[in-house]
Amino acid sequence: MNSSLDLLDLAARAAEAAGDYIQSVGQADRRTGGPDSPTARPPVRQTDWHSKGHHDWVTEVDRAAESLIRDILLEGAPGTRVMGEELSPEVGIEGRVWIIDPLDGTTNFLHGYPQYAVSVALAIDGELEAGVVLDVNRECIYGAVRGRGAWLGNTALRVSEITDPARALLGTGYPFKRLEELDIYLAQFRRILPATSGVRRAGAAAIDLADVAAGRLEGFWELVLAPWDIAAGILLVREAGGIVTDPHGRRAELVHGGIVAGNPAVHAWLLTQLSV
Predict the structure, then answer these.
(1) Residue 10 carries which DSSP code?
(2) pTM
(3) Cα 99 from Cα 93, distance rounded (Å)
(4) Residues of the chain scoring pLDDT < 50
(5) Residues 189 and 70 in one domain
(6) Which of 115, 119, 218, 254 could form a disulfide with 206 if both were Cys (CB 3.0 to 4.6 A apart)?
(7) 47 and 89 in a common domain
């Protein structure tokens, strides 16, 4: 039986292999001038984008990255299963299950907007045990193990100590796949934005949750997310001293739906604003 730290190391190796592959695609398919040049173009041609649903894109990069992660995880931890966004989204969470998003922020990636991540987590009978989030462009990897803390590299993570909502910086995500939720979200946004230092929407929930764990954001909320978007991020926030629930204050589970995350004070305040 692999130890939790062994599983964390395995998750990190899988995420880094996928990150290297994603970066290689971007570097190989740019015009002369380099990725920082104004002549550089997005890494995948529009003809290679495929729609999974409204505003929801997938490419062979997503699928190949997921296959790469899957092979590393299953070889390193025999007897586990994989729930992945692209190749196996219907796998249940009973037993030892890896929950992976091979490219969180696909739309950002397609436009060359440098905010996307690889997320890998292991759950045992629905309880998150280990997880990593790789910020691909910044080449930094966040990790957490249940009951042992969360880290960025060798630095322990702690949520922000800011408790005053007026001083808080929040992250969010728009309900772009389910526009019927938009009016609900906009009402929440109208209440929350004026009462805080600001609200940011960068388009990759895994990184948003890592930013909460690292204390860069005091809180985060989104109405529509999938298990692979949030699994590793939930563990990061919890192990960094934060709280993650659904919008009704119930413990966040590995299901499709909304989440609210933050340090204890800002999380509690956010819940009051969302329940109005």
Answers:
(1) H
(2) 0.89
(3) 8
(4) 31-35, 37-41, 46-47, 49-57
(5) no
(6) 119
(7) yes
DSSP helix/strand/coil, 120 = strand
pLDDT of residue 55: 43
In contact, 99 and 86? CB cutoff 8 Å: no
The pLDDT assigned to 46 comes to 43
What does the alpha-carbon distance between residue 99 and residue 81 come to, in Å, rounded to a whole number? 9
Contacts of 174 (CB under 8 A, 6+ apart): 182, 185, 201
Helices (H), 78-181: 106-110
Nearest to 105 by CA among 189, 176, 10, 166: 176
Q: Which residue has the tokens 């994603």?
A: 22
Q: Which two tokens stand for residue 212?
A: 């909460």
Q: Tokens 């109005």 map to which residue?
A: 276
Same domain, 150 and 184: no
Looking at the fold, whether 21 and 144 belong to one and the same domain comes out as yes
Report helix, strand and coil shares of the chain as percent, to nearest 5. 35, 25, 35
pLDDT, residue 263, reads 98
Backbone angles phi, psi at 269, to 5 degrees: -65, -40
